[in-house]
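Quick one, C-alpha cells below. Sequence please?
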C-alpha cells in the first residue's frame, strides 16, 4: 500500500482549503472545434492538490494532458494517487500520454474496483499495452502500485477518500473526497434507476458541499435511445442532489455531440429544479 494510505482515524483532519481542478469533462470520446470551446472537449480527468509532493487524480482521460502542462516535478518526485471510476477507454486513454509516468523519480498508485475476477492491476495492464499502444504501462519508468478500492477509506495528506459502487456496464466507482468539514462527491458514468445503487449514492453524497454527477443525456433522448447505456440525465442528477441534500450540483460527462449552447440550455433547465447547478468546464476549480 502507498505510504500515505491510512485508516480514517489516522488521517490528519484539516480545514486548510484544497483545490479540485477539472481537466477534462466529456464522456465517450474527445472532441474539438468552436462549438465546444466553452466547456472543452477532453475526456474526464479531475485532480486535487493535497499538498507538497502528492497529487490526487480521478480518471485518466485525455484531460490529463492539461495537468501535465501545469506540473513542476521536484527533484524528489511526486506521488500520484490515480483513482479510476472504471476501465472504459475514455477514462484511461490519456494515461500513457502523461510524461510523469516515464520519470523514475515519481510513484503512481492506481486505485480501482475488481471486475469479473480481474483486479485493478490486471485491468490496467491488459488495456494499456501493445498492440493498442506502442509501449506497456508495465515498461514505464515510474514506480507503480495497485490498490482495490474495496479497502477504502484512504487517507492522503489532509484528505479522506471513500469509494462506493454504482450502476454502469462493467461497474463504476463513485468517490467522496473529504477535507476537514468539506466534502465533494464525484459520480460520473452512473445510471439512475437501480434502487441499490441510488441508495448507495444517497448515503455516499449525504450533505456533500458539491455533488459532481453524470448528465450525458437529455430526458427527451434517454428513454428511446440510451436506456441501459450507463449514463444519466440532468433530471436524474437533480434527483440525486435532492436526495443527498447536497448544497451544489455540477453536471459532468457531457455528450461528445453536445455543443456549448446545448449544455447551457441543460444547465438552465436544471436550475429550475435545483437552482445551485452548473456544468463543469475545463479549467474550472472548486476550493473546499
Amino acid at each position: 500500500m502507498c505510504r500515505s494510505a491510512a485508516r480514517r482515524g489516522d488521517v490528519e483532519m484539516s480545514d486548510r482549503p484544497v483545490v479540485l481542478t477539472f481537466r477534462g469533462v466529456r464522456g465517450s470520446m474527445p472532441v474539438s472545434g468552436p462549438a465546444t470551446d466553452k466547456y472543452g472537449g477532453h475526456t474526464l480527468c479531475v485532480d486535487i492538490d493535497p499538498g507538497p509532493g502528492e497529487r490526487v487524480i480521478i480518471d485518466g482521460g485525455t484531460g490529463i494532458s492539461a495537468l501535465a502542462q501545469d506540473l513542476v516535478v521536484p527533484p524528489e518526485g511526486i506521488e500520484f494517487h490515480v483513482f479510476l471510476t472504471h476501465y472504459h477507454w475514455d477514462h484511461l486513454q490519456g494515461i500513457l500520454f502523461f510524461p510523469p509516468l516515464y520519470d523514475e523519480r515519481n510513484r503512481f498508485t492506481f486505485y480501482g474496483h475488481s471486475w469479473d475476477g480481474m483486479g485493478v492491476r490486471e485491468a490496467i495492464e491488459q488495456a494499456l499495452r501493445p498492440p493498442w499502444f506502442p509501449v506497456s504501462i508495465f515498461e514505464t519508468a515510474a514506480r507503480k502500485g495497485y490498490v482495490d478500492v474495496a479497502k477504502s477509506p484512504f487517507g492522503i495528506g489532509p484528505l479522506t477518500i471513500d469509494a462506493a459502487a454504482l450502476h454502469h456496464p462493467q461497474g463504476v466507482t463513485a468517490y467522496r473526497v473529504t477535507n476537514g468539514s468539506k466534502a465533494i462527491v464525484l459520480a460520473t458514468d452512473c445510471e439512475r434507476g437501480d434502487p441499490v445503487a441510488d441508495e448507495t449514492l444517497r448515503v455516499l453524497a449525504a450533505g456533500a458541499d458539491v455533488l459532481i454527477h453524470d448528465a450525458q443525456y437529455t430526458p427527451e433522448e434517454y428513454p428511446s435511445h440510451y436506456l441501459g447505456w450507463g449514463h444519466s440525465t440532468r433530471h436524474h442528477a437533480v434527483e440525486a442532489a435532492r436526495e443527498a441534500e447536497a448544497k451544489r450540483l455540477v453536471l459532468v460527462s457531457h455528450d461528445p455531440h453536445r455543443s456549448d449552447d446545448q449544455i447551457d440550455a441543460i444547465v438552465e433547465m436544471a436550475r429550475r429544479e435545483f437552482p445551485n447547478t452548473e456544468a463543469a468546464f475545463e479549467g474550472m476549480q472548486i476550493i473546499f
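DSSP finds six helices and 14 strands in the chain. Residues 8-287 form a domain with the Metallo-beta-lactamase; Chain A fold (CATH 3.60.15.10).
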